Amino acid sequence: MGWIILLGLIAVSGAGLWLLGVRRGLLQAAGAALLFGAAGYAFQGRPDIPGAPAPGTTTASIIPLTEARHAFYGDFTGEESWLRISEALARTGKSEDAVNILTNAVHRYPRNPQLWVGLGNALVDHSHGLTPASEFAYRRAAELSPGYPGPPFFYGLALARSGDREGGVAVWKAILAKAPANASWRPLIDQGVAALSGPPSAATR
Q1: Domain range spanning residue 78?
Q2: Which residues contact 137 (CB under 8 A, 6 or more apart)?
């Protein structure tokens, strides 16, 4: 079936080039390139292997980043436009662009802890785990808002998304130990602790 599709694509490509006015030498060169690609497929292609999702940080599906961010920082802030654009880019796989958006934001507003948290999240998305750069971003956010649980919460989430579930849960439990009983964001952390304290599921591996 794969060969039929491949041959069909070659035929369609050749016809398209002809309709665009490509003739003789250029058409022969294009045909050679298509055949070279087909040869590569024949040598290395494995159409019988089922597709698999690229490795990612699916722990974020337990606590979506936007939902968690709104729980800690609200959703009608001046930073919202920067953060929404970055998160939308990350969801479509443009993680480098998502990082660049928030890098520009923290350069413009270097004392804004929410933007630093967002940059940490974007860096974790881009690298599929914690890096020195993302750790610096979370640490900077914590320095700018001492005692506030937002930065350590997202750092704990980043640990879990990087494969350190126990580390993430430990950070969250430390937050809960100091949290007021009526804190609006407390149920969110309780949910995360409960989800990550059990055996790994297909959604969180």
Answers
A1: 58-197
A2: 106, 116, 117, 119, 120, 123
